[in-house]
Each structure stands twice: as C-alpha cells, then as structure tokens.
Amino acid sequence: MNSPGERGSSAPVRVVWSPEMLGYDFGHGHPMTSERIELTMRLAGDLGLFGHPDVELVGSDPAPDALIETVHEPAYVAAVHAAADHGTSDLSRGLGTSDDPVFPHMHEAAARVVQGSVDSALAVWEGRAEHAVNIAGGLHHAMPGAASGFCVYNDAAVAIRSLLAAGAERVVYVDVDAHHGDGVQAVFWDDPRVLTVSLHETGQALFPGTGHARETGGPGAPGTAVNVPLPSGTGDAGWLRALDAVVPPVVRAFRPDVLVTQHGCDAHTMDPLTHLRVSVDAQRMAADLVHDLAHEVAGGRWVALGGGGYAVLDVVPRSWTHLLGVATHRPVPPETEVPESYRDLLRDRYGRQGPARMTDGREPSFSPWSAGYDPSSDVDRAIRATRLAVFPALGLDADHD
C-alpha cells in the first residue's frame, strides 16, 4: 500500500469550480440544470466562503477516455462520443431518453465532471488538500454500460477506483440523495475494499426502484452494501435518526482510508421529484456528521460531491452552500441572512428573491437508536431491517450500538 500524503494544518480545502463546469446541462425544462451549480457558487461567494488563502478554487479539464474506462465500457464511451459529436441517440445505452437527452458536448461536459472528482480524490489522498468538494459531481446513477437518471458518467465510481489504484485499501462511500445510489453500488458490488452506504426514499415509491435492505453486497464482499430505504414522507427526526443509527457504526467498523460522500439535496420537502420531508437544517447536520466522521476515522480525508436536488432557487444553493461552509471549516450559521446581492440576482433573473435566511426555521432533533426501537414506526422498522441485514457481516450488534 502506498501511504497517503502527509497533511498539516496548512493543507487547503479544494473546491472544483470554473464556468466550464456549467456545460453539464440537459437543456431547457430539464430538472438537471447547471443553474444549480452557478447559483450555489454565487451564494457561497457572496457569503465570503472562498476569499481565504486556505480555500483553493480549481477548474477541471475533461477526463481522458482511458480514465473513464476504468469504470465504463469502451463501447459505451464511444456511444457518448457519437451522441455528443453527431446527436446520435442510443436508447439501449440510455442516451436520448427523456431522463438523459443528447446535448452538444455531452461527452466533454460529463468527462470534465469526472476529472474534477478524480483530481479532488487524489489531492486528498496525496495530502495536497485536507478536504475537497465537487458539487457538479455525484452522478451516482450512471452504469458501466449506460446513462441513467440524469447521469452520463459515474464520477464518484471513477474517483473511488482512482483512490484504490493510488493505494487506498478501504474507501467508504456515503450517499444521502433521496434516490438510491445504484450505480456506485453496482460498480463495487463484489469489491471488499469499498463500502457503499445509501440513505434514500424507498424504491417502492421512487426511481430507480432499488436499494432494499437485503441488498448487502456480492459473494466476495458480503456486508459491503448498506441500504436504508425510508418511507415516503419521512421528515427531519426520522431521517436523522436513520442516518445516526446506521452511518457512524458501519463507517467506524470499516475503518476507511478515505470518505467519499454524495450530498444530493432532493430529500428536501420542497423538491419536486421526491417525497421526503427533510429541511436544509437537517441536511446541514448531515454534512457536519460526515465531516466529523472523516476526521475521526480517515485522518480528515474527505471528498464531498453534489448530486440531485431540483428545487433550484429555494433549496439547492442554500443546502450546498452549507456543505461548502462545513468543508471549508467556516460553517454558515443557520440564521444568517441571504445576502442582498444574491437576492437581487434572483429577482432580476427570475422575478423573485427566494428565501431570506440560510435556514428553514427548524431546529432538527432526533431520538438516538440507543433510546429504543419502536416497532410501530415505519422508520424504525426500516432502520432495523438494515441493521439486521448488514451489521453482523461487519462485526456489529444489530440490536445495540
């Protein structure tokens, strides 16, 4: 094993950002608009998160095909090139569907996201950065041979595979998007070096229809896929209880060298595509939790990615700005007023100013699992099913912390 780079207190936090990152956009009317990224970076900038010598803003070139093909089939990469260059749909490869319509420069835009996540992961591994954030990343549905669910290339999977190639022995991937992180799970299904953890709305109600508690990894890697499918309508207390009851124990048991997290914010109550009822305030707490875990178990080596989130004006910029605040060690107090400069931008461009504060006005709290199991609770039954399915394989007691 190659030893990870030494990091000191002067190691910067790396944030992937350049206007070229806005190229990943499926066009007018599609939920996956790059305005989500542009508005986030504008809000975070207006709040002063980037004007510090220990925060490094870096762009990204498109990843070469050989790097993408560490996860994706060469025939699929060729199909994406054809789609980008000639507008050629390939429905068998998920290209040209309503979820993943073909757009000019599709390959270049998706490859740029991949390289941003890979560069971030290697910078953290080599000690050139303490944490790294690529909010354009987190395209967790893309499969080795097909686009899926707004995702062309699976940047998270390529980044994790790059970490393994660089010498990491164990990597944990934690996904709090409302949709199951099926693509990353599929890539590492039978790889004992990678633990994938997904907290999501039940597949009985939401795309992609997977992520059941019984999905626990392949025959060569039992217990390395952890899925918490939550009932539709789950709010802050249940969502945070599930996160706390599952994520810290399995991460600690696996003892990763690096923590990679996906922060899709579509679990929010205002998201138009999902049915969970989570607040920006709870999402901020989730970012705090995984940040603390990275320092506790992985020497601070943390790569944070974006993902889903389709309440473009009211939710996504605030949620991801909180993520950036946590990652840059300058957390934004919830009661902070949204800067007038940012609200003026929203008014001039969209005709309304959006939320006035960085909070939804909630003070999320939850009862820890150690307080006891409630068999009448749908959320508790979901948590217990996950713990029973996977905890024993990781050497954990499913009934007690």
UniProtKB/TrEMBL annotation:
Key words, A-Z: Acetoin catabolism
Record keyword Ribosomal protein present: no
Transmembrane segments: none
Pathway: Ketone degradation; acetoin degradation
Keyword Transmembrane helix in annotation: no
One Gene Ontology biological process: epigenetic regulation of gene expression
GO molecular function: histone deacetylase activity
Classification via SUPFAM superfamilies: Arginase/deacetylase (SSF52768)
Location of region: Disordered: 352-375
A Pfam entry, by short name: Hist_deacetyl
Entries under InterPro entries matching the protein: AcuC, HDACs, His_deacetylse_dom, His_deacetylse_dom_sf, Ureohydrolase_dom_sf
Domain Histone deacetylase: residue ranges: 30-324
Family per record: Belongs to the histone deacetylase family.
Record's protein name: Acetoin utilization protein AcuC
